[in-house]
Amino acid sequence: LANLRAHGESGGGLVKATVNGKRPLIKVEIDPSLLKAEDQVVVQDLVVAAVNKASDEADVIAKEELRKSTE
User: Fold this and answer.
1) What would the pLDDT profile of 50-65 be if each residue is shown by its tens digit?
2) How far, in Å, CA of 34 to CA of 57, rounded?
3) I want to staple 17 with a disulfide (CB 3.0 to 4.6 A). Which of 10, 11, 50, 62 is the partner?
């Protein structure tokens, strides 16, 4: 599972997150247009949303891999 990668994004792709199959966050990408002091709360919310989407995808992938290995 550590070699699997799941991706999530929010804000129309302005914030992207990658986790592995064991769930640790590996990478966060934030579009430079968001990096203004007055947008801090928005950026934080978008990061949370992207990480949650990546985590959800990791769940789906892990379950599928587990199913494959037990067939």
Assistant:
1) 888 888 888 899 899 9
2) 25
3) 50
